[in-house]
Design a protein that fits this description.
Length: about 120
Amino acid sequence: QVQLVESGGGLVQAGGSLRLSCAASGSIFSINAMGWYRQAPGKAREWVGTIRRSGSTNYSDSVKGRFTISREAAKNTVLLQMNSLKPEDTAVYYCNADINTSLARPWYYVEYWGQGTQVTVSS
């Protein structure tokens, strides 16, 4: 019913930038929050950052000052601007969203996940 699709991943040199996009589609009445996670091979999935419907954001310590999350509410799209990339940022990046799909239950939100997009930072 709801689909999240990430795009924008690729290969970049250390110090460079990438912008990831996540588009939510389907039967969506409202979005409470959208965020990003990442997972490197052999490691646990790590929270990167979140943007709430108010527009407020928070970030993990590892990306503060380098990454910026923004959301286009009308388009159900969230962006992750990644600057000053480091090799340790290499991971599959996943979008998630806390979405309400039922007018009858406007308090009820379900978390959805995208398929992931690969980001590789070379040294």
